[in-house]
């Protein structure tokens, strides 16, 4: 969508060959973006640490590193763009639900505007997409919760 995202794509193609959204909007994806943005060592987050995505997110949310902020902003924008694409493909007018380990931990970044701007930037469908609510799943075990609800309904 943007020159910066095209640069990220070129960087990732150089690293991996084929690039899909999993290389960008996942924990390892955030680390990939961090490596793209940070062409030098980062004092706030170690991209080789086992919990690198969490370190990068914390450094960005705490505003300890401008490049970590940029990495998280780029992550959030790509997540928003793909969530909007998915909403259009599925006509999910009842809402989009963001799950996984990262969204509940970066809610302030998701509320910052970049996510919704990218989510809604779907000309000429902006009005349709703009009316779709977006939710973050914060339950720690949504799969187990869903299974319990389904099991409880099956006993009736």
Q: Can you describe this structure?
A:
There is one protein chain. With 156 residues, the chain is mainly alpha-helical. The chain has helices spanning 3-16, 27-37, 52-61, 66-90, 107-110, 114-120, 126-130, 142-154; strands spanning 96-98, 134-136. The chain has a two-stranded parallel ribbon with strand order 1-2. The radius of gyration is 17 Å and the shape is globular. The mean pLDDT is 93.
In short:
By secondary structure, the protein is mostly helical. It is built from 8 helices and 2 strands; from the N terminus they run ααααβαααβα.
The end-to-end span amounts to 49 Å
The major beta sheet can be summarized as: 2 strands, parallel
How much beta, percentage-wise? under 5%
**What integer value in Å does the Rg equal?**
17 Å
Number of helices: 8
Q: Which structural class do the helices and strands define?
A: mainly alpha
Oligomeric state: single chain
Number of strands: 2
Instruction: Write the element-wise H/E pattern from the N-terminal end onward.
Output: HHHHEHHHEH
Uncertain ranges: none
Give the overall shape: globular
Q: Strand order of the main beta sheet, please? A: 1-2
- Overall mean confidence score, pLDDT: 93
Percent in helix: 55-70%
